[in-house]
User: What shape does this take?
Amino acid sequence: MFEIPTIILSVFSGSFTVGSDVFLDQELISVVSCGISIVITILTSIKLYMKINESLAIEQELSIKFKILSLDIYKFLSLTQEQRGITELEFLNKAYTSYVKLVEQSAVILLNEKRDHLVKIEMYENDDSSSDGSSNNIIINAREDAL
Assistant: This one.
């Protein structure tokens, strides 16, 4: 974000300093060169203060982790129940925990927006129990006030 203007201003400053001595007074050349250097210094200082490079690296790493999580979910949903190895509820808890950790680590998601936008899931038991006697039935409450 700040690299391109810095490079352009540096090239312009160098070219102006060397090439304009025939057309302008040295005093004016020095003032313009100094002004451009001040702008370059301000841009570089803002970049360092905002820690833009570190933030970009962290967000890129988090982006990769979000993608891996989505691939894990896709893979789990693509497998048959016999191939999965864990129950749906265990996987849901594991995936949701990973999701929450990734959201908490993100600097891009604003603090006031770090609210769970997922649908509230409630567990209930009914008469349709599985063969091992446990009931893993899930009902999704999609009302906005449930969030």
